[in-house]
Design a protein that fits this description.
alpha/beta; 6-stranded parallel beta sheet; Rossmann fold; single chain; 6 helices; globular
Length: 195
C-alpha cells in the first residue's frame, strides 16, 4: 500500500479528483486530497488561473507543505497539472519521498537539485502548457538530479485528459494512464517491501 497525497489542478477539487482518489483507494492505497482553494472550484481554465493568482504560488506551496507534513515519511506525491507542479516541489525537497506520480504538469527545478525518487509523468502530446522543448529539458534535468524517470505521452489528448467533465477528456488515454500509474505504485510498493 502506498500512502499518497494527491493535489488538484488549478480547477480545484473537482469531482474527477475525488474519483481519482477513489480509484487509488480501490487499488489498496491510502490517499489524502488537500483542498488548497478552501472549497472554491473553477468551471473554466481562466477561472482556475484567476484563483491560482489570487491565492499566489507561494501560498499554494505553503498550503501543500502544511497538508503533507503530518502524513509522515515515505509519501508518494501526486497531482494534476498545477498539483503535479506542487507535488514535484515537495517530492524533491523530501529526502524520504516514496515516489512522484505526475499527471498533466511539471515544475522547474533548481540546478543543484538532488533526488533518487522514482518519477512517472503522464502528459498530452502536444500540450500547450508542457511544450516539447520544455519536457525534454525537464527530463534531462530530472535525470541529472538522480531521479528514475518514466514519461508517457498521449498523442491527440487534451491537457487534463483524465477529467471526464472537461473538454480535454480522452477516455482511452485516461485508461492507459491509470493502468501505468497503478503499475508504478505497485512497483513502489514492492520496492519498499524489499527494504
Amino acid at each position: 500500500m502506498a500512502r499518497i497525497v494527491l493535489f488538484p489542478s488549478a480547477y480545484g477539487l473537482r469531482p474527477a479528483v475525488h474519483a481519482a482518489a477513489d480509484r487509488l483507494r480501490r487499488a489498496g492505497h491510502e490517499v489524502t486530497v488537500p483542498d488548497l482553494y478552501d472549497g472554491r472550484v473553477a468551471d473554466t481554465v481562466e477561472e482556475g488561473m484567476e484563483l491560482k493568482e489570487e491565492i499566489g504560488v507561494d501560498e499554494l506551496l505553503r498550503r501543500a507543505v502544511a497538508a503533507a507534513a503530518p502524513l509522515g515519511r515515505g509519501l508518494v506525491y501526486s497531482g494534476f497539472s498545477m498539483g503535479a507542479s506542487l507535488a514535484q516541489n515537495l517530492a524533491l525537497a523530501d529526502e524520504y519521498a516514496g515516489g512522484l506520480l505526475m499527471f498533466h504538469g511539471t515544475s522547474d527545478l533548481r540546478d543543484d537539485a538532488e533526488t533518487e525518487v522514482a518519477v512517472q509523468l503522464h502528459v498530452a502530446e502536444p500540450d500547450p502548457f508542457e511544450t516539447e522543448d520544455w519536457l525534454n529539458a525537464w527530463y534531462l534535468r530530472m535525470v541529472a538530479a538522480g531521479a528514475d524517470v518514466e514519461v508517457y505521452r498521449y498523442r491527440g489528448a487534451g491537457h487534463i485528459y483524465t477529467d471526464p467533465d472537461l473538454p480535454d477528456h480522452d477516455a482511452e488515454a485516461a485508461e492507459r494512464t491509470w493502468a501505468a500509474a497503478l503499475a508504478f505504485l505497485d512497483e513502489i510498493d514492492s520496492r519498499d517491501a524489499d527494504h
